[in-house]
Amino acid sequence: MKIATICTTVLCLLLGGAASSISAQEKDSGEPLQTPARYLFPDDYMADPSAHVFEGKLYIYPSHDWESGVTNPDDGDYYNMRDYHVLSTENPESGKVTDHGVVLSLEEVPWAGRQLWACDVAHKGDTYYLYFPAKDLNDIFRIGVATSDKPYGPFTPQPDPMRGSYSIDPAVFEDEGAFYIYFGGLQGGQLQRYRDNKAQECGIIPGKTEEALPPRVARLSDDMLELAEEPQPVMILDKEGNPLKSGDPHRFFEAAWMHKYKGKYYFSYSTGTTHLLCYAIGDNPYGPFTYAGEILTPVVGWTTHHSICPYKGKWYLFFHDSAPSGKSYLRSLKVCELEYNPDGTLRTISGTVKEP
Ligand code: FUB
Description:
Blueprint: H1 3-15, E1 38-39, E2 46-54, E3 57-64, E4 83-89, E5 98-105, E6 112-114, E7 120-124, E8 127-136, E9 141-148, E10 156-157, E11 171-175, E12 178-183, E13 194-195, E14 198-199, E15 216-219, E16 232-233, E17 236-237, E18 254-261, E19 264-270, E20 277-282, E21 289-296, E22 307-311, E23 314-321, E24 332-338
């Protein structure tokens, strides 16, 4: 190991968080890294992995794809999931995970009609909280909460969705004792149906030169079961401080995630129609966030969705692709290492690198 590399590693450790594996001497050429990615659970189709470390172990909370017989892609109808599993591992690079089985089923949720989409889990006190979107009996997406005393469930749902919740893809982030929920997704995710948190008669996606629709953030109540405030827009700005436009290939579409690195807040997301994972950096959990680059180039399949989590001194990117099935609605979980440049920007990774 070169002395410069040792110094960089020690510096990263001193600054807190997991160490970057990039030495200060290595330059980011801008070309996507050919980082090998490992499939995590080849035995079944799973997607939208939300990863967290609980009790020293890495837990993954995915959606559970299956051949439901619905093949209509409109509004994401063929993502017709009916249950959640929990996976865990102490060695993500091995690709081996423990499947803790079904931890919540659609028929257990009194208010839900169909489509258990991307979920996330938070831990406070003695309880684990699973946040999940589902269409209610009127086919409107709401966000529900289910609880467990273990990170691997089973989870018991609350009788009703969270008051004032709408759209999809909840991601929960803890910062200095407060919990924030990020959410939203365009098109099938119904975000275009809301303005100022009020449902509109019909959903409108702004024109290409208008401001893009923002995802939302709200602090959670002390009991973690409700929103503690009106959801607020998460503004993603360009370098000049202007909100990204609806026609920008890097604008938000769905799959929000938040992580903190060296005191900065990294809001990451999928661009949906342009099939990228991107990120923007801010100074607090509410933003605004300044667009900073692409994390992952397009994968095989229509959707791209991710989480970012440090574990045992490294940062990992969890995502999915449809390469094994060849079908957009049957996705497989993947993981690869994520690397930072010395200035705190993330290295772009190619979405199509094969297993090591
Ligand atoms: O898995 C269903 C939906 O597809 C998710 O909620 C979106 O983020 C996209 O991955």
